[in-house]
Automatic annotation (TrEMBL):
Transmembrane portions of the chain: 119-138
Family that this chain belongs to: Belongs to the TolB family.
Name listed for the protein in its UniProt record: Winged helix-turn-helix domain-containing protein
The keyword Cell inner membrane appears for this protein: no
DNA-binding region residue numbers: 5-103
Keywords: DNA-binding, Membrane, Transmembrane, Transmembrane helix
Keyword tRNA-binding: no
Organism: Pseudoalteromonas viridis
SUPFAM superfamilies registered for this protein in UniProt: C-terminal effector domain of the bipartite response regulators, DPP6 N-terminal domain-like
A Pfam cross-reference name: PD40
PROSITE patterns on file: OMPR_PHOB
OmpR/PhoB-type domain span: 5-103
SMART domains attached to this UniProt entry: Trans_reg_C (SM00862)
Organism lineage string: Bacteria, Pseudomonadati, Pseudomonadota, Gammaproteobacteria, Alteromonadales
Amino acid sequence: MEKLTHAFVINNIIIDPQRNQVQHPDGINSLEPKAMALLCVLAGQPNTVIAQETLHETIWPGRVFSPSSLQRLIALLRKALRDSSKSPEIIFTHAKQGYSLEAAISKPQTGTKTPAKTLLSALGLVFLLLAITAYIFYRPPPRLSDIQAFTFTSLAEFNGQFSPDGKAIAFLRQSADKQTELVVRQLENPGKDQLLSDVQIRDFTWLTNKQLLIAQTDSEAGKLIRVRLTQSGIQPQHSLPATKHLRNIRHLLKGPDSAIYFVATHPDTAQTDKIQSVIMQLNLISFELKTLMTLPAAHDIVDLAAAPDGLYVSLFENRKINKLLHIDPDSLSVNVINAELDGRYKLAWSSHHNRLILLDSLKPAVFALAANNQLVTIHHALSAGVLDANLYQDKLLTSRAHQTINVFNSQSPDAALMHSKYEDYLASVSPTGRSVVFVSNRSGYPQLYMTDQNKQPEVIFTNPGREDFISRAIWHPDAQQLVFAADKKVYQFDVATHELTALPITQPITRVEYWQTSDLPGAGVLYLTHATQASTVAYHIDSGETEMLSGPEHFIYASKTHHVGWQDNTLRTSTGVSWQPDSGQIRHAFSVGERILVQVTAPGAQRLLEFDPHLNLLSQQPLPKSAQFVSSALYTEQNTFIYYYSHWQNTDSDLMLSQLTF
């Protein structure tokens, strides 16, 4: 599919894909990379309806189709292009079909002829414009760099905060017994941490270089306690009586002068079914409490940031929209800065740069709030979203979450076969049961590992391009070969020689669905998912020829005369037989030999069903609640059925240090 990569013009609007910018005559809007990629695809085929599935597979190759993800990007494009969804002039929605960009696409003008008498002055103007353009567009963009681990243990460390002078960092740590303790680490003497572990801590903030304020975890009362750093440790001083009638104090934050900001449960609704949250200001000198804003139960405060001119609030409204608000504590006025933030944003105020920094907690994205309330993209090396963020001058301290996923099988459900601190998933067991290949993020990004009869796993695909997706490995019945897809290529691995070969397939591929084998050496067909089109590619191994098959269904079984496909929530055979679950959704479907296995999830229950190639039901069994994704199975010589699944267990987090430059 054609995709524009160089600057182009839509109705006098200059689109710059290299900088992710939409340049109107009166201003510039920034776009997130995926939204710009979508715009380039639509502009590559103007005045043409492009199917939703095709667009989704182009932007999110190998991912499950989600109309809402595509609709969100379309909304971002319309906002950046100043196009209306009710009366569009550029981007049009075609119900149950897709989207089109209706406009003439042209290249930016590079210059015009100038009369001789005005040539000198025109050249001067051109040089002036070039100088201004160079200053605006070619100065180094804001960037986060030099990411280093500040903590890296098996315990969860989070909510790191610099002391006012930047010489110490305090953070929370969840111990092995799930108790939360406060840790203070002097940067000049990192070997002697100070701990406060005998108080149940929900949140904290620095007051001075020697004092901190702690919010306790207490269902009976909202307790704020001052503590002091001494030579003998962290010493509690006294609690503040002004907040004893509040509940669930969180997002504790030191503001200018003697102001403290926090979020709590509204005292008048704490005992009702409609609990409201309030944003409060506490004066540490007079102990005066002021309610800045009252929020209904459907509104969730994501984060607060205190600036000299007031309080910024990241608000998740009705579980759909993230808004950025600004509150003036003196006048109690609330202004909406941005009503359509894409994500759940953590906030950090940079007094060094006099900027508000926004960091997405769901995906790696960082922005700065400009003077015109536009979001300016900050280039970064983050690999995931952040749990929280704190700034001291140009140093940024963030918490990164690491999801622990382990691999289990039905034969030994109480002990993980693959276990690490990070994600181990998409396990594929060989037909003999001797070897298991799985994807793991043990090195910080996906790589493909193999283990043989519980030996130490070894890397068989290093993923040099650091792609974020590697498909499930598909084994040959002889257990000596396997194939998988990564970086839009298909790789074949020889178990005996450990030789890894990229197959000569010219089509971009995201997944290997099925390996139709043959008794003839070198023969067989691989059924593959095309990266940009909703179709299957058949690759004939002996001849090297590829064949585009009609229809968007995934082939999960194939013989010379018969095949079974899976699309949405339905299985279909080439003879016209179809099957759908009576309740729930098909989470995964694959084949083992002549058996079709289907994982069905429904509220409160999961099932694993077994069919023959004609979709006759052979058996079904309940799945344990811990089985998030059944990825492979085998039948032993005694016809014992063993399936393998991924199990999400817990989330660890570590503190990371970065440098912020403008």
